[in-house]
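Summary for the steering committee. The consortium agreed at its last meeting that each partner would contribute one worked example illustrating the joint modelling workflow. Our contribution is presented below. We chose a case with several input lines so that the handling of multiple components could be demonstrated. No manual editing was applied between input and output; the record is shown as generated.
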Amino acid sequence: MRFEDIPHNLVQRAREGQSEAMEELCLLVQPGAYTVLLSLLRNTEDASDALQDSMIRMIRFLPGVRDAHALPGWLMRLLANQANESRRRSAAPVVDVSALEENAASARVASTASQPFSPRHVAEAHEMIGKINQAVSALSERQRTALVLFEMENLTIREVAAIMELTDGAVKFHLHEARKNMRHHLQNIGIFGSDLYEEAPSR
Amino acid sequence: MIHEPRNDCAHVQDQLDDYRRGSLAVPDRQQVQVHLEQCSACMAELNFRMALSGHLRASLPLADAPLGLSPAVRAAVQAPRHKLAHNDRKMVLLPWTFAAAVIIIFAVAFFRNRPEEPFGSSNTVAFNLPQASDSVSGEMEKALEAPLETASRAPMAPQGTMEEADSVVRELSVVQKEELARPAVDTSNVGRNQSRAGAAFSPDSTEAKWKLADSRPASIATTAALTSATVATTTGQAATSAPLNQVQDRQDL
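What follows is the complete predicted structure of the assembly.
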């Protein structure tokens, strides 16, 4: 469920201290929050830890939110901050090149009808997925946050600016720099032009 | 609206995200399309952005969110929290704010019109403070009870009423000291004998605390009245804004 679709009366009851409403709110928020954190952290273990911390923060500070309409932006800001804090706590960016990524690679290849489903393709996709995640992890905090929120959460520049507490121009700059760095990384590892990936369809 | 044709690449690339998302107005979308058909560089940029978006999504680990709440989150849900919503707090404090304003107005009128009197003879009226409502949160009560830094007593301090003033100020929260430092009303017309006692209470560390009072009964009255209002409002505001401020403080993006 998108944060914007959470019922306002549920948010209000949770703000007023009703434990049942707060628990229901947490259950509604958790999946979307986990997706955002996973997009930002690219690591399931860090995302799980950050999710728990984010939920606890939401429970503690929700009464301070102005009203239910402010919840989506406030939540995104909380999650972005939590992701950055989690990364700073980690000794080094950990890219989870694991069975989960292998699953992603398998799923991706299997869904590409024009490609034969072979172990070689899966292995190559697995390797490329790992390198993409490494490239994302190598971005600065602001570049990564701007890129993920804009591209994966489909937010507008203005919405990203509100979450990151930057101007629209600053967000555009960080987005531009993130794309430039990603292009550099991905071209170095030969991802663009690979026949494993179809072009992403336009919206 | 007449659209000025701008086929330069910088302008087109600035619109590529809106073009991808289908949020451009029809005339602008048509202009971008025409440009893309003629400009391989901008077309390559569009393809790159689309591919990058696809790579980011495809590379995301396929992990589902945890089912249910973790024990720590569940414990946080069950932990006692402040029950009043933000707006409810405002509604509770509103009558006290109004009452405090009325007291201030009457106090100013009263002390401005009274004849000059020696210091210390007419202060008792200042300490009939309104009692906090039972509906005020426990956080406000804690703020009220928080100890203040206290000034050492000057030997020239008059007895009785200044001691009462001292005990009143002690009951205020540390936060209110700054409120006291800002005089709410012009007390310049109060008798000159009062300033002598005020001068005795001005060690550097506590000057701000006594600044408004300046050992004047009018100031003490307005201080007490103002304090009851500021305690009702400021502490309540601090209780509600502190969590969000704490969140915002953590935002160092």
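Chain B touches chain A through 53 residues (CB under 8 Å). Residues 1-5, 83-87, 119-160, 184-253 of chain B have pLDDT under 50 and may be disordered.
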